[in-house]
Amino acid sequence: MSETSAAKIETVVVDGLALAESLRDEMAREIEAIVASGRRPPQLTVVLVGDDPASRSYIKGKQRACARIGAAAAEYLLPESTSQKELLDLIERLNRDDGVDGILVQLPLPKHISPEAVAEAIDPAKDVDALHPLNFGRLLLGNAKLVSCTPLGVLAVLDRHGVPLAGAHAVVIGRSNIVGKPVSILLQQRNATVTMCHSKTRDLAALCRSADVLVAAVGSPRMVKADWIKPGAAVMDVGVSEVDGKLVGDVDFDAAIGRAGIITPSRRGIGPMTITMLLRNTLTAYALRFPTPDPTPEPAPESSSDASRDASTDRKSSAPTTAAPPAGPKA
Ligand code: NAP
Is residue 136 part of a domain? Predict the structure, then answer.
């Protein structure tokens, strides 16, 4: 649609919560099947250092989300005074614990603890936030197993709404390791032409105006104005700021209605999808460490000898009833 078109656009407001719920239903069924097969459910362990109220509320949300799909969850609430060594020792214990599939250390950390040291300490096979350099490198190489949750959530929203990505111009504002960089890489891998923007980008508004897909991940309330949005564009507003006690996104949401083709609101938008992708990563980490045993093949009609029947029975009876040990060395 051209910019001068008089036709008002019917903007689709993404219901991230409804989408998250439908994905959680799918995961609940997967876990039901795992448990029905005699194996334990996937387990997520969350570690919080300090007593930041927002972080406490996030980890409570994560625990509730685990319970909702039948995943097991554990939390470690450590005092602000915890040393980096104490935290790294705990991570090492969790790395060695076969009953732990996903480890998430809630950010931000107190100033005396290096987030890089923490990211590097987590076993890449349990790194559900996907911040370990190995997982980041794999993402760049195009063979990622675990990808950070918010970018996965953005891609899931775009896919569920059928937004074409191949050949589209995607503009990403923000280049953090947790959102901007990984979402840019994922979009490029889906054949979008990606422009990555940041605080030093010149004429951001003009770049945004040429975006078919615009991802804003800055944390600057309502910085993206309606006239920065190409009519009909898909606008993924990741930013969350609090203004006068209200959650506000990076995009001027009210003004963008009638201009954007689809848009995520600051509440019930990308947020619920982020937690959902954390659950997905926990299931992925579990599946990678404990692959589902191959279903026992039906005996072929021509091989009805006693020997082949016995072999088939053996395979059935040797199927693990509890989780098997890790399939191989750490990733
Ligand atoms: P971050 O690490 O602070 O990164 C912010 C990025 O924005 C930086 O790359 C920065 O550029 C860029 N930036 C700052 N001012 C800018 C400007 N005027 N023009 C263009 N770019 C500018 O933040 P983050 O962790 O990626 O998070 C971004 C926002 O998303 C925050 O509001 C956060 O709360 C929210 N978030 C939401 C979810 C969710 O689930 N909804 C998940 C994660 C994050 P430089 O690199 O040049 O400094």
Answer: no
